[in-house]
């Protein structure tokens, strides 16, 4: 059967391995047809699978698959056909996952595991397949600990029952890499992907034309991009294209080629080579249109990415399809590139020469305050606190031994680097008081001191301390978890940093509930009342609160462990635009609608009641007359459209069963999923 979610994941080059009709073996305990009477119920597994395939083939899965699967479970159970029932449960897991029915899927997962154990399948290929499907369902539900445990069990089983060069082992490593990527562990994701590629190379008759290996190269390129390793990411993105080119020369035309093109475009976009990115996106779009048509999420996502690349290329004055280089008008790399160059060419050699015993214990990178840590710096950022810099993070023991001397050496190489790499006549970027002394942004730090300076905590609060998590603002957590780590062999810094990345699920749900309340209060309730009262300043304040709560909600819905936290107000919309440009982002089109609300805010709050505007293209096309409407009416229509989209997403996530679009009434449904009874997590 066609797994639509797997197709989407494959297109974005982050594909799952799912068993497709894999659990079909009969056990010795299954009665043969000859021992059953004509009156006894029977279950035909092949017929079940054919019927399911037919539902997907006629594109009616949304309405027909669920009742078909539920009836099949009943039929298999009535027939006493445990093997058939296990097949149905495995297929049901995949379908429920594709629909976002994660809560319903928990019961299916538990039942499948219990049934497989009762059938004595532990240690068999069918056991491995069932574990893979269960793990993937748990990962989709964001139950990451359970998913990791199930994947690990599946891998152990697979390595015992599959041949060493079996591609299913490679697929399992790929699945683990996806889990690590989603939980903010790019280094672990990179490790699993490299193992995936090792297995595929050994399994392949010709690695130079192996499409699975090409997909893994694209996956690794995107993972390296998340780690800030843009040069390495480009190398692997180009390797994927080379494999596809060689395969196409031999007549192998794979749908994954579009994913490879989109991956290459994404890397080039990150490198600010927008013209090249647009060329690759355009080619990917043409392939998708030929293969799937325009009425697909694949086409719409890529078309939007192409538009953004074209806009960026136009703004940057870059021609399409042409490689771009730094020019005399823009000779300086961005702050993160500058930091990485400074580290590689001066910092790392200094550590190896002066502190060889400690070099492997010191973490280096750029994290914390400053636009370059978020990747938002530009020419305007260079007027203060800008220049080559990085941080060195030490354990308390190592800092006591070498901290002060290492700081002096850092200051020495920083001065020398600036003198050597600053062009004559280039404007000086002064250091402001807020970036000096105890609040300095670079140099040598104790790990605990560094995080305490940002959050007030030397390490993240305990997972069972929700009141402490709620005292940490999202912008504070964003500052503590942004940037890039260039080196951390010891892992002490990354471990502490990841502690702040994993907000407890109950806290995330509580914050979602709070944001729903503020969106309803400010945007749906108070804004119309303030407008009726003619209180423009209060109406403007309501729009501000609505926008801030909505931006926060988008990040929370997408899970900060995967996409990061919403930063402080200055960079919130830049971060939201970047998040919305990512493939498979939930509520991706909310950004454009919010921007239109803010564009109309002044006219809506302070203009005459008779003023009119034209309905824009980013908002709800069907909710207002496409002719002229008042700015206030347009703002109201967009807000209601955003709220309806939020409800739709809550339903897809299994967080509500209600269609009510006044978001205050959605809060109890969300809070039903909070496990802890801590009062601070629940609304009054």
Automatic annotation (TrEMBL):
Stretch list, region Disordered: 313-334
SMART domains: TPR (SM00028)
Domain DUF4037 positions: 469-571
Pfam families for the chain: DUF4037 (PF13228), TPR_10 (PF13374), TPR_12 (PF13424)
InterPro entries: DUF4037, TPR-like_helical_dom_sf, TPR_rpt
Keyword Repeat: yes
Keyword entries, A-Z: Repeat, TPR repeat
PANTHER family: NEPHROCYSTIN-3 (PTHR45641:SF19), TETRATRICOPEPTIDE REPEAT PROTEIN (AFU_ORTHOLOGUE AFUA_6G03870) (PTHR45641)
Protein name: Putative tetratricopeptide repeat-containing domain protein
Species assigned in the record: Bifidobacterium merycicum
